[in-house]
Design a protein that fits this description.
The chain is α/β, with parallel strands linked by helices. It has helices at about 40-50, 80-85, 95-100, 145-155, 190, 215-235, 250-255, 285-295; strands at about 30-35, 60-65, 70-75, 90-95, 105-110, 115-125, 140, 160-165, 180-185, 195-205, 205-210, 240-245, 265, 275-280, 300-305. The protein starts with about 30 loop residues before the first strand and ends in a 6-residue tail after the last strand.
């Protein structure tokens, strides 16, 4: 038999392929985000900083990402918790206030730090309601009846909840209710409608939630995404600092500025001075800078960090 590859007799078979390429279907993670609105903007911006580009144009409801095994579902906010619980979406970015209201059986795996707001009870500025107890027997209009009911039960307040959607703040002005319960960001909407906050019942921000029954492969992808998110979050709350320090004050300066593990110290041409590089948390930024100046640091430079892997 003719053997074109010169292989030993009996090894070559014209009917048998020399190699077989097996196509392996890689699992993709699906994430639900708000179809439109401020939460969608923050979600897509976070994914972009994680190196994941999402084309959300042309009113698409489902988009596959080329740079990460991720499929983005654009859904109505109120539908997202149910879709995650049912496994239609593996994970989602949603406001904590909506998750509290829906009471679906999902797990919160990360707080994301954007789209912060509060759910508050508000009443007319010129009204007779001065305290929570004054709401007994009164009507409260809200889009968050479950959240409100749980709060009222906890406080022992017996009020009638009137559930409406949209334009909740107008309810007292048209005689529909004596008070409202709604989300508040800046408070401008309350001010324009003659209302004041009586009680904050919930503080909220965007959170990453997940289905409780993810496969091992999808959980691995979630862990990879979380790694990127945490690197982005760490960069937001930390700054890179470079400064010149006299050698005589080095011990004191490194005590003020410990860094992630310890600061980087580099010699300068002047033997009595060194360059110190480190990281400081933004929450203590000005406090630390003042301490460094008092300790003798000079030429302090502050540089933003794009990503921070710790």
């Amino acid at each position: 038999m003719y053997n074109p590859l010169g292989l030993p007799s009996g090894f070559f078979c014209p009917q048998r392929r020399l190699s077989t390429t097996k196509k392996i279907k890689m699992e993709r993670l699906s994430i639900a985000v708000q179809k439109s609105g401020r939460l969608q903007e923050g979600s897509l911006e976070l994914l972009k900083k994680c190196g994941i580009s999402v084309d959300s144009g042309n009113g698409q409801l489902k988009v596959s990402c080329a740079d990460f095994p991720l499929e983005v579902l654009f859904l109505r906010n109120s539908d997202i918790p149910q879709y995650v619980q049912d496994g239609v979406a593996d994970i989602a970015i949603i406001g904590g206030n909506l998750l509290e209201e829906s009471d679906e059986d999902v797990q919160i795996i990360e707080s994301l730090g954007f789209s912060k707001c509060r759910v508050s009870i508000a009443v007319p500025k010129s009204g007779q309601i001065k305290s929570l107890s004054d709401l007994n027997g009164k009507k409260i209009a809200t889009s968050y009846p479950n959240t409100l009911q749980k709060f009222l039960d906890k406080k022992g307040i017996n009020a009638e909840i009137h559930t409406i959607s949209g334009s909740v703040e107008i309810a007292p002005n048209i005689g529909l209710a004596e008070g409202i319960c709604d989300i508040v960001s800046s408070g401008n909407t309350l001010f324009m409608n003659g209302l004041r906050e009586l009680e904050v019942i919930l503080r909220s921000e965007a959170v990453l939630i997940a289905n409780k029954s993810l496969s091992a492969e999808k959980q691995r992808l979630v862990d990879q995404l979380l790694f990127r998110i945490r690197a982005v979050q760490a960069a937001k709350t930390n700054k890179y600092v470079l400064l010149n320090a006299p050698v005589a004050a080095l011990d004191k300066i490194t005590e003020i500025l410990p860094g992630v593990k310890s600061p980087t110290i580099l010699p300068l041409a002047d033997k009595e001075w060194v360059s110190v590089h480190s990281v400081i948390n933004e929450n203590r930024f000005w406090e630390v800078i003042d301490q460094l100046r008092e300790a003798g640091a000079q030429g302090i430079l502050i540089v933003p960090i794009e990503k921070m892997v710790v």
